[in-house]
Amino acid sequence: MSIKYVQIRTIVTSLMAVAFLLTDVQAAQAMSNDPSLILTDQQQCGTHSPLFVALGDAYFDLDETHEPGLTSSTDIEQNKLLSRLSTQRFKDGWGQRVNCTANVGQLQAQASNVLLEDITVRRSDLSSPDSEILVTAFEYDEQQKRLRRETVTIPIRADKLLQSSDDRLVSTLRHRQATPIGSYLEETHIDAFISSESIIIEQSVFVNGTLAQWHTWHLPE
């Protein structure tokens, strides 16, 4: 990959981040005062992050916190979803990956179906302040005919969890990404839950609070 290509790609990403931010300012006025922290099944490119809706301008303050879902290692140990993730051997799975691209001022979704192989789950030490579940799989993109190794990180720290129940965890990670013309805030929203005969993991990436890409993994048990 040439240096020129990397530079062009970086500048395009930066311009998209600026466009997302301008869109957020206009849309913030119409946000609900009672938002859910779980994304709906009908999410689309340009959808706003539930955490952004909940926090408003404070969303861009990385020191801003929210009410934790799980408050102790005992609660985590008793969580059925985490127990099954940690002990289950998964068969090959499937899913979908969606990227949002700008086209004549509009965001359009480009979707690819994927097949999952060699699914592994690693759980970090619960005594660590950065406890997490790492789900790794080889993901075969049926459209691009490409195989690559992907990992989904599920934070299980209390201050990273938005919502929790016995069979569902919703968590988020935010950080600032530097660009040649400034920076943007990137949030990774993870929703993992038990559904009949499988575990489903949905990971969404927001740029300045606006949905830029997402993917869904189905892990049959």
In short:
The protein has 221 residues and is α+β, with helices and mostly antiparallel strands.
Tell me what the structure shows:
The protein has one domain (3-220). The protein is built from four helices and nine strands; from the N terminus they run ααααβββββββββ. Helix content is 20%, strand content 46%. The relative contact order is 0.21. It has helices at 3-27, 50-55, 73-77, 80-87, and strands spanning 93-103, 106-123, 132-141, 146-155, 161-165, 168-179, 182-195, 198-207, 210-220. Residues 1-30 form the signal peptide. Keywords: Signal.
User: How would you characterize the largest beta sheet?
Assistant: 9 strands, antiparallel
Proportion of beta-strand residues? over 45%
The 3D shape can be described as globular
Mean residue pLDDT: 77
Would you tell me the structural class of the helices and strands?
alpha+beta
How helical, in percent, are the residues? 10-25%
Low-confidence stretches: 1-37, 67-72
Number of domains: 1
Distance between the termini: 39 Å
- The number of strands is 9
| H-E order | HHHHEEEEEEEEE
Mind sketching the topology for me?
Elements: H1 3-27, H2 50-55, H3 73-77, H4 80-87, E1 93-103, E2 106-123, E3 132-141, E4 146-155, E5 161-165, E6 168-179, E7 182-195, E8 198-207, E9 210-220
Signal peptide: 1-30
Keywords: Signal
